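Hey, resending since the last one bounced:
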Amino acid sequence: MTEEAYMTKCGLSFCYKCIHQSLEDNNRCPKCNYVVDNIDHLYPNFLVNELILKQKQRFEEKSLAFSMHLSIFFPKPLGPQE
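The structure tokens again:
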């Protein structure tokens, strides 16, 4: 899952690590070929970052609920019996 979304001047969003690496090799948007003169011309995409955060929270909540569900049907052993 994307960690931190950034937007180019052409309006496309990418993972920061991915777009940064791409721009080191070529100063163009990897999708539309728009010239990106400088790495400083990348901007955080606050909307996408908010959606990513909410999705991660939902995933964690579902994982916790699933773990609790499993523990009901498959309880952990209590340890060595004497």
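The chain is about 45% helix and 10% strand.

Sorry for the duplicate.
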